[in-house]
């Protein structure tokens, strides 16, 4: 195999390795995290906290209503027991009872509103909890598959890297240095010549450069982008 053909093969190999490394990072991400599940669980935690707050507010209102009911029974008993005979004191008790009843009505309305909110929140908690459980079970199943896939990719990547080591060992240090600098700076170090044109920058290559590149003995670089030119034999 000629020098340029060897470098072209190395570039295809390096590109294949990079694609697999990207795929492996994606597989590790899918194994390690599930954004949809995380979002559902965060929302579920918020809803549960809101539900507990609503229930605590409901209990406080119910306690206040119970206290008012006790006061109403006490004052009602005093009002009609015959123990209070002073007209002014009786009038005061009646006003107090009316105040208690009015306040109790307002508290009961507020309590009903809070109860409805708590019930609605609990329904949302139940629905989202079921959804989160479904997502978690699906993720566990998918994660097992992703783990197997990652192991397969790991083994395949090890094989590709071993193949790369063999390719690199057959190259002279100078050519390898040029190749690696170009790949680092330009993304691709080798460009095929197709129809007399550099496939990477689309500039027409002089015929003599194509001929030298086709010989494969020495490196020929594109006069425009500087990439190593790989020119196969012309089709008969």
Task: Give a description of the structure.
The structure is a single chain. The protein is mainly alpha-helical and 236 residues long. The protein folds into 2 domains: 34-169, Helix Hairpins, CATH 1.10.287; 173-230, no CATH class. The protein has 5 helices and 3 strands. A hairpin with a 2-residue loop joins strand 1 (190-194) and strand 2 (197-198). Helix 1 packs antiparallel against helix 3 (87-169). The mean pLDDT is 90.
- Largest beta sheet: strand ordering: 2-1-3
Supply Rg.
40 Å
The major sheet is characterized as: 3 strands, mixed
Structural class: mainly alpha
| CATH architecture level-2 label of the largest domain | Orthogonal Bundle
Which range does the strand content fall in?
under 5%
What's the oligomerization state? single chain
**CATH C-level name of the largest domain:** Mainly Alpha
Summarize the structure.
With 236 residues, the protein is mainly alpha-helical.
What structural keywords apply?
236 residues; Helix Hairpins; 2 domains; three-stranded mixed β-sheet; 3 strands; 77% helix; rod-shaped
How is the topology of this model organized?
Elements: H1 3-32, H2 35-80, H3 87-169, H4 173-186, E1 190-194, E2 197-198, H5 207-215, E3 228-230
Parallel strand pairs: 1-3
Antiparallel strand pairs: 1-2
Helix pairs in contact: 1-3, 2-3
